[in-house]
Amino acid sequence: MTLQLGDVAPNFQAETTDGPINFYKYLGEGWGVLFSHPKDFTPVCTTELGEVARLKPEFDKRNVKVAGLSVDPLKDHHAWAGDIEETQGHALNFPLIADSDRKIAGLYGMIHPNASETFTVRSVFVIGPDKKLKLSITYPASTGRNFEEILRVIDSLQLTARHSVATPVNWKHGEDVIIVPAVSDEAAKAKFPGGWKTVKPYLRVVKQPT
Ligand code: BEZ
Are 96 and 69 spatial neighbours (Cβ–Cβ below 8 Å)? Predict the structure, then answer.
């Protein structure tokens, strides 16, 4: 069964470059990003892991714990870590899971047999504090992901969770947002005392709440 938005993200125990973890304990009360890459010692993956390490302070600011995963053994992860630091200028600063028995890959549907029988694809799962799946995306092995985009989505998800707003096309942090249709004009008056612009009754634009 494919993991779908709103489903509870399964808990697991894992061996990682930071030692054994219980995933839920690692996430604590905050948000999480679990992402898989196809294989250690490969070029695109090397750039992605370096980029996530560079962006770690941005994930921290948003109270998001990050974990990477592939089906390579722990000894390969440790050996590869040196290459990542050397070539990308950023050392791994988050746990990289060694899922050699593919248990976690199976739980999260990270192996797509028609793409590869053996490697995990480039999956990303964003998990909320309620441990439910808020976003999932899948990229092929040949395309490196844009982790700035993952941060942008997390900003949107966190605004929705806190303020009953949605974000329009190409929105970036700081730009105007949309009052969700479930909020009546009456309720919106209390939530957004500074007012909003009604473009259509279903399209109400408001300054991004802080
Ligand atoms: C890469 O990370 O460069 C890669 C990994 C698996 C297949 C193709 C490319």
Answer: yes
Judge if the beta carbon of residue 116 lies within 6 A of ligand 1: no
Q: Measured in whole angstroms, how far is the alpha carbon of residue 28 from the centre of its chain?
A: 15
> Among residues 158, 120, 129, which one has the least CA distance to residue 24?
129
Q: What is the pTM of this model?
A: 0.96
26 in catalytic set: no
Question: Tens digits of per-residue pLDDT, 38-69?
Answer: 999 999 999 999 999 999 999 999 999 999 99
Distance in angstroms (rounded) separating the CA atoms of residues 32 and 127 = 5
pLDDT tens, position by position, 125-150: 999 999 999 999 999 999 999 999 99
The encoded tokens of residue 4 equal: 């779908």
Nearest partner of 208 among 156, 133, 138, judged by Cα? 156
CA 76–ligand 1 middle distance (angstroms): 15
Encoded tokens for 198: 């009604």
43 ligand 1 Cβ < 6 A: yes
Strand partners, 62: none
